[in-house]
């Protein structure tokens, strides 16, 4: 187990922002389709995949489950918990959706399963970007994206009183 690279920046994403970005991803993907089915990479890809599937009217949905983080920001060697080849075969005509490509580790594992699928993410970092075909927003490698499911509304002190800006 190795500690992930240091993250100097925090990029919080709201539910509204994620929904808007996932719809933008679907808009970009529309010309690449139609797709026979969609593979959501769990767990982060489930929410954007649902939005993309709705927007592109994709009804055949499967999941690929790959464990690359043990907890919080601690990385681990990739472990495939569930592949998606039973329905998707080699990926021909299929779309893979994830929330983020970071180092590219998960993307490489799933690409190995479904080499002919179209791979799309909402966010992409430079190290993982070569592994995806379509994405919406690029962020720096030293940015930790804080997704809505990782957040809770809470009081924040004003900056003048020692609060932080994130």
Strand order of the largest sheet: 1-5-4-3-6-7-8
CATH class: Alpha Beta
Helix content: 10-25%
Order of helices and strands: EEHEHEEHEHEEE
The name of the CATH topology is Rossmann fold
Domain module count = 1
Q: How far apart lie the N and C ends? A: 28 Å
Residue-averaged pLDDT = 91
Quaternary organisation of the protein chains: single chain
Question: Count of helices?
Answer: 4
What radius of gyration results from the CA coordinates?
16 Å
Query: What overall form do the CA principal axes indicate?
Result: globular
User: Which ranges are low-confidence, i.e. pLDDT below 50, for 5 or more consecutive residues?
Assistant: none
- The structural class is alpha/beta
Largest sheet: 7 strands, mixed
Strand content: 25-35%
- The count of DSSP E runs of length 2 or more, i.e. the number of strands, is 9
CATH architecture descriptor name: 3-Layer(aba) Sandwich
GO biological process, one term: purine ribonucleoside salvage
Binding site for guanine: 102, 145
Subcellular location: Cell membrane
Binding site for Mg(2+): 99
